[in-house]
Design brief:
Elements lengths: L1 H30 L7 H33 L3 H33 L9 H23 L2
Helix pairs in contact: 1-2, 1-4, 2-3, 3-4
Length: 141
């Protein structure tokens, strides 16, 4: 069981990292460049995609905690995992709610000025990428 958990402890951060890179740094900015994608349509798609991403991230985080407990992981592993979990919680509980409220207002027809709130989300995503890489490196079998 330790061996499977050890491999999971390395594999899941890499899977999580791939999801973050593909969605946050490719899909999200590119969808607004596609022909015919309006701001409301892009926001609607983004809400669905990021809700699904965050749900998958929570599931991966739970599996990683379980694997780390089974393996009796090193303090370095727990540190990187703790940073990734904290950043995920920050995104879901602090950064996303104002973005969701803003999207709701735009979808309701309000014309709002550009917002810098997405920069916070991007900053946390970049930090999460570093944390996931760190976790994968220290947890490598």
């Amino acid at each position: 069981m330790d061996t499977v958990a050890q491999h999971i402890l390395w594999l899941l951060p890499m899977l999580w990292l791939g999801m973050v890179l593909a969605i946050s740094f490719l899909e999200a900015p590119l969808k607004f460049r596609a022909p015919g994608v309006t701001l409301p349509l892009g926001l609607g798609i983004g809400r669905l995609v990021f809700r699904a991403l965050n749900a998958a991230e929570v599931a991966l985080a739970a599996l990683l905690v379980l694997a780390a407990l089974i393996v009796a992981s090193s303090p370095a592993t727990w540190s990187w995992l703790g940073v990734a979990l904290t950043l995920l919680a920050l995104q879901i509980l602090v950064v996303r709610p104002p973005l969701t409220r803003r999207a709701d207002r735009i979808l309701a027809g309000e014309d709002l000025p550009r917002s810098h709130a997405h920069y916070w989300y991007i900053g946390v995503e970049v930090a999460k990428v570093v944390a996931l890489l760190g976790l994968a490196i220290v947890a490598a079998p």
